[in-house]
Amino acid sequence: MKEMDIGKVARWSGLPASTLRYYEEKGLIRSIGRNGLKRVFNESVIERLSLIALGRAAGFALDDIAGMLASDGQLAINRAQLQERADQLDRTIKRLSAVRDGLRHAATCPAESHLECPKFRQLMSLAAKTAAKGRAHSALSIRN
C-alpha cells in the first residue's frame, strides 16, 4: 500500500490542502494517519478524488456525492439519481442553447432597436420566465 502525504495529494489533484481537510471532515475521504503534522493518505484516495470530481462536474452537491461513496470504499450509486441528473442537464443544455441562439441573433439583428426584434423579445420573455421559476423555487425551499 503506497502512502501519500497531503501535499502530494494536493499537487496531484490540484485541490488545496484545506479542501482535502474539508472533504475528510465531510467523510468523503479518509486519511490513514500522520507523518509528523501532515496527514497521510492511501494512494486509493486518488480514485476517490476522481469520483468526487466527476460528481462535482455533473453538478452533484457534496452531500449527494457522500451518499454515493460508501465508507468501505465501495460505490453506492443510485442509478435513478444519475438518470434524473442527466435529465436535468438535458433541460439546462436546451435552455442555454436557446439563450445562445437568441444572443447570436441579437448580435446580428438588422432591427433599429433590439426591442423591435421579435426574437429578442422572445429571449427576454424566456429570461423572465426562468427568473420567475427560480424565485418560486427559492420561496418554496425557504418554506420547507
**Strand element count:** 3
Low-pLDDT parts are 139-144
> Which class do the helix and strand fractions yield?
mainly alpha
Percent of residues in helical segments? Answer: 55-70%
Sheet with most strands: strand arrangement: 1-3-2
Straight-line distance between termini: 47 Å
Please tell me the total number of domains: 2
Overall geometry: elongated
Largest sheet: 3 strands, antiparallel
Number of helices: 6
- Overall pLDDT metric: 85
Question: In percent, how much strand structure appears in the residues?
Answer: 5-15%
Query: What radius of gyration results from the CA coordinates?
Result: 22 Å
InterPro entries: DNA-bd_dom_put_sf, MerR-type_HTH_dom, MerR_fam
Domain HTH merR-type: 3-71
Protein name: Helix-turn-helix domain-containing protein
Keywords: DNA-binding
Summarize the structure.
The protein has about 140 residues and is mostly helical. The chain has six helices and three strands, in the order βααββαααα.
Ordered list of secondary-structure elements with their pairings:
Blueprint lengths: L2 E3 H8 L3 H9 L7 E3 L2 E5 L2 H13 L4 H7 L10 H30 L9 H26 L1
Antiparallel strand pairs: 1-3, 2-3
Helix pairs in contact: 5-6
Kindly describe this structure.
With 144 residues, the chain is mostly helical. It has two domains: 3-58, Multidrug-efflux Transporter Regulator, Chain: A, Domain 2 (Orthogonal Bundle), CATH 1.10.1660; 79-141. Helices cover 65% and strands 8% of the residues. It contains six helices and three strands; from the N terminus they run βααββαααα. Strands 1-3-2 form a three-stranded antiparallel beta sheet. A hairpin with a 2-residue loop joins β2 and β3. α5 runs antiparallel to α6 (118-143). It is elongated and about 70 Å long.
